[in-house]
UniProtKB/TrEMBL annotation:
Gene: secA
Cited InterPro entries: Helicase_ATP-bd, Helicase_C-like, P-loop_NTPase, SEC_C_motif, SecA, SecA_CS, SecA_DEAD, SecA_motor_DEAD
Location of the Helicase C-terminal domain: 428-604
Source species taxonomy: Bacteria, Pseudomonadati, Deferribacterota, Deferribacteres, Deferribacterales
Reactions accelerated catalytically: ATP + H2O + cellular proteinSide 1 = ADP + phosphate + cellular proteinSide 2
Protein name: Protein translocase subunit SecA
Gene Ontology terms: cellular component: cell envelope Sec protein transport complex; cytosol; plasma membrane
Family matches, as Gene3D superfamilies: Helical scaffold and wing domains of SecA (1.10.3060.10), P-loop containing nucleotide triphosphate hydrolases (3.40.50.300), SecA, preprotein cross-linking domain (3.90.1440.10)
Cofactor dependency: Zn(2+)
Tree of life domain: Bacteria
GO molecular-function terms, A-Z: ATP binding; metal ion binding; protein-exporting ATPase activity
NCBIfam families, A to Z: PRK09200.1, secA
Key word Translocase present: yes
Region (Disordered): 800-867
Pfam families according to UniProt: P-loop_SecA (PF21090), SEC-C (PF02810), SecA_DEAD (PF07517), SecA_PP_bind (PF01043), SecA_SW (PF07516)
Species of provenance: Seleniivibrio woodruffii
Amino acid sequence: MFKSVLQKIFGSYAERYIKSMQPMVSAVAALEPKMQELGFDQLAEAAQMLRDKLKEGATEDEILNQTFALVREAGRRTLNMRHFDVQLMGGYALHKGKISEMRTGEGKTLVATLAMTLNALGGKGAHLVTVNDYLARRDAQWMSPIYLSLGLTVGIINHERSFLVEWDDKEAFTTKLSDVTRQEAYAADITYGTNNEFGFDYLRDNMKPPHEPTSQRELNFAIVDEVDSILIDEARTPLIISGPTERSTEKYYNVDAVVKNLRIDEHYTKDEKSRTVQLKDEGINVVEREMNIENLYDIKYVDVLHNVNNSLKAHAIFKKDVDYVVKDGKVVIVDEFTGRLQPGRRYSDGMHQALEAKEGVNIESENQTLASITYQNYFRMYKKLAGMTGTALTEANEFMSIYNLGVAVIPTNMRMIRNDHTDVIFRTAKEKYIAIVDEIEEMNRTGRPVLVGTSSIEKSELVSDLLNRRKIKHEVLNAKNHEREAEIVKDAGLKGAVTIATNMAGRGTDIKLGEGVRELGGLHIIGTDRHESRRIDNQLRGRAGRQGDPGSSRFFVSLEDDLMRIFGSEKIAGIMQKLGMKEGESIEHPIISRSIEGAQKKVEAYHFEIRKHLLDYDNVMNQQRNVIYTLRKDIIAGEALDEIISETIDNVIDTMTETYVSAAEKPDYEAFEKEIYEIFDIEFRFDEDRKNFHNELVRLKELAAGKLAAKKESFGDFFPEVVRFLFTTILDNKWKENLLQMDHLRDSVGLRGYGQKDPLNEYKREAYNLFVGMMNKVNNEVVRVLLHVELNRQSDIQEAEQKQERVQTREEQRDIFAEQPRQQSEEKRSPIKREYPKVGRNDPCPCGSGKKYKKCHGINETDADED
């Protein structure tokens, strides 16, 4: 009550935010007559003046009004599209690093030009992130006359090609695309591309050899279009670059032959809510008998158990034409949110191979992770992030807690008059589909266009089949023909059109009403079931009623739908039973619609926990990734190579000291001396008077530094190249090994919950130890190879660089160089502590705990340093 009284006095936060933007809107309007007086070429000159102001120290906020007025005039003159006042508000919210929630059809594509231009004028680049290649290309070329008229360059990043947008006919304001390198597309003032490509390019850049230039520059500013789809829906799946392993694929067929004969309830149970399966004792006995295994849960059969569980999921959980399709002899993933095919994407950890075995197609070899990052951690690297969508408010808490993105709800330019009917609920799916087709037929008879939204390819084809039986002409848009997506959706508002689309297919494409359709009531939306997310239902509804157009929407639901069946239809089933409803009868009531919404909220909360869980684990990896990628960039840049190598040598000696002396139960000076010879190629003997041990270490470091200086002199100008090549090759190989170990670690720590241990804390602790061990191996290997290597001729470096991509093992790596004879090193005792690079006492601990290093893994080291 108190809250509602305050809201009446002061207005809601959204209302107050809109009111705070009014002075900006008025200031831009006041500049409009002055902008209209400018000649076309003077637009670019005015933009250049704003660029100069930024170089002289002005802030973007100080030139905001002039920039927005300039962009508005450029839009009016080149595209005949003048930004509405509410669009100026949307652009302002984007510039301030917020999510601009604008209803579907309010012109978000045009809104983005305001913030993109303002943040690109400083010369650091601005990225616009879209959900697919088509939209990236369409939006960039569509809006480019605005940017080009202001003297800005525009690049496009697509999956296989990159473009620059250039004038085709400047007087007619038409543009053309020119093929360019990825580096050139990123160097443009403004770059459009997809979330996948931006993320993968970041990973690829950090895998490139020293001589190859990176594509991306500093991540400055990004606007994520359909931000809820990219940062929420797709955030459950990390971006992974993987390479094949040499494991046999025959085992998947063998396991599938056994599992496909297992029966639910008799041999195994399944939980559709969590998408998991569990073998029963009877099932275990069958598997053990058929595969000639004495105990499936014996540690030596852990791989077999893993493959059996994957195969069970492939048969019991994953559905053909819902989760995946078989196309051209391959299993292709279907995006669960958009219904689009995802060619090139593969389920990890043997799951894709299990599906290939199920479908009897050729099994591709299992992959090993070479680099990975979550969308959350990638997009949080931008200095400033913003987003646009029609539906963000339902996930406002997640946007704020993970991305620090507030949601600004922007009012519509014209009042929304769409009629959203309450849901119609049936007992069975059969009754529901008959009612859907009846409604389509009735609308079609009057000529009113209908857009039918389905949650899977299977359901879209079922509705299509029912319409064919009644001879109703229609278009089907699903993942099997997404190439024609925009064209089909664009025509969905024509008189008599019936369009069936999976989920959010065609999202971002404007549906214009055909002649005479407005008088019939506009576009009618039919949802064949409720999605797990309210946002996706709202997206479907939002296809109608754009820019003041009339329209309506209705969802048809049955108790057999997945959402109702899994997340609680007992209440509604009870109401229907009490009413004594007969076959074909439906119930329609706001209480039931609210009950369905409650079920959706439960699912949304469940999925949020999954995404948060993924992020918690990736945060640990992110700390390591930042250390590795920063070190790699420093090495390639070469500005502090001498310092890096000197510190690496010091770290190796410090770690050896800990292993053989400081942390050992009994000091082993003989083993210490042996390893000094193997790594440094130095014959060294410690003084028998152990009191001089500290001075001896100083002497050892001086000898190592002298050895390095001699090596540097013998290599001459080639020394930096040798160091860069050696360090990056060894670092990359060890990092790949570490990623594989991290994958195995993550799979195994989950079981520790049964031992009353927190799996996440266990993961942090062991991941830290793995990382320290990896960095010690990197340091040892770099120093050992560098101090033993000899250049036989000047072309060795060039040959080595060409061979670098083929380097897979340590032996191959050694073959590149002509090494001095030496004794092979034995397996060493694992170092206790010390990592590379040295972490400052007040820096965050690389283990991902969030504590300062001195309060976490550095507590002993800090104490020792202070002593």
